[in-house]
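job 3f2a | input accepted
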Amino acid sequence: MADSKITDLTALTAVAETDVLAVVDVSATETKKATKAVLLAPITANGTNVGIGTTAPTALLTLGATTPRLDFLESGGSSGFDNTALVRDADVFATQTRNGATFVSNDYRMTANASGATKHEWRIANSEKMHLDSTGLDVSSGSVLLNGNELNGVKVTIADDAAAALTFPTREGGFLFVGINVNSVFPQITNFSVSVPVDFGQTPGYPPPLFQGSGVEMNNAAALTGTTGTDGKVTIGTAGVDGTLYIENRTGSSYQFSVTLL
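job 3f2a | predicted structure (262 res):
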């Protein structure tokens, strides 16, 4: 092939996999040929889509690996968290915070199967705070704010002759619902439940309950210790440490209590 100026060459409008390009191999001090596949490996382009780690890209950009990860590395370098990564690992897709290549936390996780997503999970500092699945929305830590109004709910197991001391993120009072979990085996909601406005802050107290089961008593005299109240009853206490609500179980058995504070 005779030498020609670049401007005299015919433009190549479509590159075939078998087309070759002259490349100088400096290690051997000679000119060799290379195909597009060799030059771009492990990148594959089919004219429309680009694949990295796959020879069959299915979108504009396709990553193919056992655990594909796409990093958004901040060139400015936010100290300790300069990288946000998207990761697919088996049945989990996650958004991660990383410091360079070093893992810091999973911030969002989606678990899926052949039918699509089965669980959405949101985390703070790699600790789950809320998830959504087929059973509903579960706020597992903290409270729910509705236009600034904090709503709290917790399940707590209390042994016989023991007391639970409960605190809430920003509330020291509100409308309280307490009861032993209701099921087909032990329907005791009418015996061990109460609905009452309470104040367990600096000036603790409560008005007459809207509903008070026969097995529940109220106490505003002192912190409950486990044997403060009447034997055989559940005692709700508002006195003691500021911001602490007390529930004492003297029913004779260990039970799980549902507590809702509005």
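job 3f2a | The longest strand covers residues 102-113.
job 3f2a | closed
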